[in-house]
Amino acid sequence: MLHKDKEVRIRFAPSPTGQLHVGSLRTALYNYLPAKKLGGSYILRIEDTDRNRFVPGALENLIHILDEMGVHHDEGLFFDNDTLTQKGNNGPYIQSQRLPIYKKYVAELLEKGKAYYCFCSMTRLTTLREEQTQKKMAPKYDKYCLSLSHEEIEERLTSNESYVIRLNVDENYGEVIFNDLIRGQVSIHSKDVDDQVLMKSDGFPTYHLANVVDDHLMRISHVIRGEEWLSSTPKHILLYEAFGWELPQFAHLPLLLNPDKSKLSKRQGDVSVEAYLEKGYLKEALINFVALLGWNPGSGNTQEIFTLDELVQQFDISKIHKAGAVFDIKKLDWMNAEYIKKLTLDELYEKAVPFLTQKELFQKWQMCHQEYTQNERDNFIKRVLEIEQDRLTKLSDVGDHNLFFFTETLTYDTALLHWKKNTGVETKSALERALTFFTSFTDNEWNNRKALEEKCMNEADEYARILGGAEAGKGRGDFLWPVRVALTGAERSPSPFDVAFVIGKEQSIQRLTSAFEKLN
RNA sequence: GGCCCUAUCGUCUAUCGGCUAGGACAUCAGGUUCUCAUCCUGGUAAGAGGGGUUCGACUCCCCUUAGGGCUACCA
Fold first, then answer.
1. Which nucleotide is closest to A263, CA to C1'?
2. ipTM of the complex, rounded to two decimals
3. Which of chain A's residues 386-415 bind strand B, using a 7 Å CB cutoff?
4. What is the pLDDT of residues A209-222, one digit of tens each?
5. What one-character-per-residue DSSP string does A462-498 give?
6. Which of A169, A192, A281, A419 has the fewest Cβ atoms within 10 Å of its own Cβ atom?
7. CA distance A108 to A492
8. Distance between CA atoms of A95 and A235, rounded to whole angstroms?
9. Distance CA A78, CA A44 (A)
10. Is-above-0.90 flag for pTM?
11. Which nucleotide is nearest to A137 (CA to C1')?
């Protein structure tokens, strides 16, 4: 099926209209993966033929974000050191710089009678469409200008009349049949194919012309794009045939969907890669997640977590699905948490600090601890992260679950200090005991999380034993619960020894003292 | 309206004629545990409907239904 004898050259050809859509990221990936898997080239071409949709900076942003996501192209348009450059022998790789090429090929079409001038006004086209829809017919151009004489065309051209150039579709051609790598044989009758505009009145080509010309000239072997292009593929095939060019392999990808199954849109949540990155999703998780929306290795392979390299190794176009896939943020959350758990502390630190430092709770903490050196500050952050790592869904969640790390004035109901149905007398003695216990620590011991935990658990057991142990219905909780609440003021939190480890000896003793005094 | 595509748990999916329909997320229950999170165990949950073909259909064919895409001098 795949032309193994032919050089594999696969392109991703986005329009720079703003931020990178997650659907586009997946399309990019589904082009990149087979290109790499088959040992071919992955090319980035920019399709900027719509001047009305020009967005300043969008092009640079597009290239930058693709690069940041790790989907690197071998050929095409690059953005190095703030300047646009092109790499490869098939350029330019931006369509607005290829206008003379399209002119040349459209002239060839004109000459062959496969295309024709059209001078119809917008109002004529609009009324034509209205009439057709009223008669419940499919809106289609009526070939009105096809019958224009050479003289008349010349005359109108010289008088600078506005015109477009249309594809001359032969209604009697019959079924246009093609074999889609994902959908199998697809056929659409030529009578249902419109005389598509190929060259707009502003001299720019439409997608259809530019795409076909460029794919041929750039020797693209596989055209892998969204399903929205499926119904215009016959136009493209007719163009390839008009030029006498060999067809590439086509593969039309299923769409990404909203929870209500409509096409993924901004109305129902974030759609840009940038937005997800800003929300604290890791690029690796995003790539992994999006890759699995419409593809999986199949045949009993239940692997869910993939690196980019593993995706390249295992990818197979024939295993791409036909049906659209709902973008389920819950599964992305799970996957992101998995990736966060796998990070080393240093990696987590590097990725999470930007999120933490922009938080008010952290800024306030920093104000209160201006005496801290950079080292002491980093040390504190790393301790926080060490404890939070298993509790994070997104990087932006850092600190949110454990506010008591950052504030020294705890407000809580004294009743919370008592574990279950404790009398309060025991709570007080537990706090008293914890106070002497923590005071006995050296700084060195305090900095060792494992040792701190071990000693703390021993102390809890010892305390439970003194109270009478299991026989008396007493346990570790009689010690650990009040200590934890004293340190956090919260009903839910990490273990007391973990909290103590983060906030330090001095602060721990201070909080225990304060709790103890509350009980008087 | 026309043309085209699609259809397995709520969601992502395995299955390429033999199925007690498997996995993951979510959800529920239990365990570990001072609480939370992590972790471990288990449960609920699916082949849109109707016809064929076949010894046998989730798998192949047809119809219906539902959803989606396209229907621009946008991509």
1. B68
2. 0.95
3. 390-391
4. 999 999 999 999 99
5. HHHHHHTGGGGT--THHHHHHHHHHHH--SS-S-HHH
6. A192
7. 74
8. 19
9. 8
10. yes
11. B2
